[in-house]
Structure formats: C-alpha cells, structure tokens
# Entry
Amino acid sequence: MAHLLPVILCGGAGSRLWPVSREMHPKPFMKLADGQSLLQKTFLRAAGLPGVQEVMTVTNRELVFSTVDDFAGVCPDGVRKTFLLEPLGRNTAAAVAAAAIQAQRDHGDEVLLLVLPADHLITDLDAFAKAVGRAMELASRGYIATFGIRPTHPETGYGYIEYEGNAVKRFVEKPDLATAARYVTSGKFLWNSGMFCFRAGAMLGQMAALCPEILAAARACFDTARVVEGADVHQVEFAPQQFAAIPEDSIDYAVMERTGMAAIVPCDIGWSDIGSWAAVSDLSPADHRGNRVLGTAILHDSDNCYVQSDRFVGTVGVQDLMVIDTPDALLIAKRSRAQDVKQVFSQLKAAGHDAHRLHRTVHRPWGTYSVLEEGSQFKIKRIEVKPGASLSLQMHQHRSEHWVVVQGSADVVNGEQRITLQSNQSTYIPAGHKHRLANPGDHTLVMIEVQSGNYLGEDDIVRFEDQYGRA
# Structure
C-alpha cells in the first residue's frame, strides 16, 4: 500500500465561537482546557499515524505564522511540514485540489491523502487509527473514502450520509430536528465528518470529470506560486489574482455528491466538530447543578450555565446561560441559542468593527502586540518580539511613535540612526521616518509603543524590507 500523507485544512471565519474565535484567530487556534489548541491536536493525531513522515497544511497566508508557532510546540522529530498558502478562501474544493496537485508532483499518483479539518476533536485515537486503516484499504482500490460518525442523538448542525456497508447511498443536507430524529432511529444514516482518504490520482481524475474548471484554475495557480524550500519545510504561496479565479465550491458539492467512487467508513472515534459554545461546554465536567466553569467564578442559585473567563465572574439566579469573556468582548447567550452566535459576528463584520477580525492581542510572525488603550489621536500598545526576530523596515505617513523598552534589549533603526536600547531606555520616531525593531537577545523583548497622529489604522504602513515576504 502507498504511503500516507495527512492534509490539514486550517481556516474558517470564526463566527460560531466568537468572541474567542475571530477571522484572524479562528477556531483551530482555540486552546482547550488542557492547554493544546485544536490545530495542535489535529497535527499530533496526523503525525502519530503509522509511517507518516510528512504533514501538509492548507491555510491562509495570514495564518501561516500562527500555524508554524502551534506546530513548533508539538512537532515530533523528523516530520516534514509542507504548507500551501491561500491568499483568500475559496472553500474546500480548491484546497483539496491544490493538495492533490502538490502531492502528485511530490509523490506521484499513488500517494494516499488523508484530509483532516483542523478544528475537529477526536478523543479515541486507537479507533481513529483503525478507521484510517480501513479508509486506506478502500482508497488504495480507487475509492474516495469518507468517514461517517455513528450519531448519538438528533443533531441539526451536521450533514448526514445514508449508507449500507461501505457504500454511500446519498448525502443529505442539515435536517430539521424531526428529520434528524428519524435518521438516527433508522440506523441507516451517519454524520458527515468532512474527513476523506483517497489516492492523489483518483481525486484528480474525478475532479477532471466532475469539476474541471476548479481543477484547471487550481493547476494554473502553481505556475505563478512563490516557493520557499527549507530543511524540513516546503512552502507554496499562491498569487491572489490567480487563486481568486478558482470557482468557489465545497468538496462535498463538487465531487462527493456526484462521484460514483464514494465509499464510507462507519466509525465511533469520539468525534465532535466543536461547532458551538454548547459543544465546548460539554467538554468540561458539570457540577451537581449542571454548571461548568473554565476560569474563576461563583454561580449562586444558578443552573446549567457555562462560564469561560480570565476574570472573576459572578452569577445570581440565572439558568441556561453561556458567559464567554475576553479582554475586548463579552458574549452572554442562552444555551439553546448557541448556533445564533454567528449573527453577532455577522453584524460586527457588516459594521466594520475590528472585534469580528482581531483580538486585542494580535499575533504577528515576529511576536505579538496588545492594544492597551486608544483614543481619537493616540494608541498605546504592548509589543513582544521573539528572540532573534525582527519587524519589517517600514514607515508611517500619519503617525509618530515613542518606544520604551521594559524588558530585554532592542536593536533600532530610526531614520539614519542605528541604536541599541536596554530596559528603561526609549526613542522617538517621527512620521515619515524609516524604522525597524529587532530583538538580538535570547529572551523575549517587551516594549511599550505610544502612537500619536490623526490616523492610527494598521494599514498606515509602507514596508521596504521584510524577512517574512510581506514587503
């Protein structure tokens, strides 16, 4: 049997688990109670399968640095990492097409791809490995295998697959509650997990027959892609104009619901797509009144509530509430309305409010920044720069900046000056000056930045040099 190449699909809008999940910090990066993110768990699950020597990840260009950071914390020795970087989302058919093309180029038609969403939780790893083994057997015979989860209750948030043995009879959209109950009672339906296993050549052949426009446009993206090769990292970054030309569709619609080569592996693997705050709350043990707390809280005369917060929270006389607190946003919702959280996200996005896209602490390839306070003509940030990392050589048109080092040392370019700042030292950078900040030390550099000017948007930046390819 050909070797296995796991492919992690890492992205998403972040709408259903707002305010912890945002566009630039979507669900895969959410930390669970054990300190690991869903993305880290997916990577470990994939890399731990027998014979795996490489893991491919398809993600957004803006998320790759957070992805690399997550992988660095858990990556086993000897596992090669390949990244396909999308400039914008075109749904799962484009991602699967790109992964299959890259795999065929690197390993030929026979390599087996295992496609895994980055934001799912699987708790029974032995059962998962056995299910993958069965899927590999089907895939080696030319089938496109999907994983069907045996339902434990009527669920309206999942798609269903009617099956018999390993044969797929039909795919069904998310049903209403009564229909879902009939499906579960019949024993003839499985939840659609969104995981797949197939030979690269088999998937490309089916896409050529069923969605040739998607495949042709995906192939064209490789002609203009920027490729970076490292010792254990291979990175392919697609150009925006070419990638935007790929028709947007899901792999379910484009291939799985139309192919005659679909097969299914029924399985019980402790699977959840963590699709709402109700699902997140179910991961924590409940007290005698059904309450669950992640953080510190006192729930007086309250029942069936979930509280997640870094601050102390108190509730009195409430039932069936979810309280999700972050430094810049607070969600309070009825547990029964968990799926409607995305409506708040959508309204924030329509209004252009940053809370749909960014947290107060924002991750960058060189470290992080946190907005401490801001007004109409000033903004105060706490900046952390990783050891050996450097910001771009840049300039701002509309704002000046004052930098104060509070921990570590900083190498600074300020116009024509080249200076080194130690703790409690500072420099002032007028608008229009080229400048750069770098951390030459072995420990994290912490700095306070005070911005002042008539426009303080993050898009007021001109990059001249950048080691992360953003210039």
In short: The CA atoms of residues 278 and 337 lie 9 Å apart. The chain has three domains: 4-272, 277-348, 361-465. The longest strand covers residues 189-199.
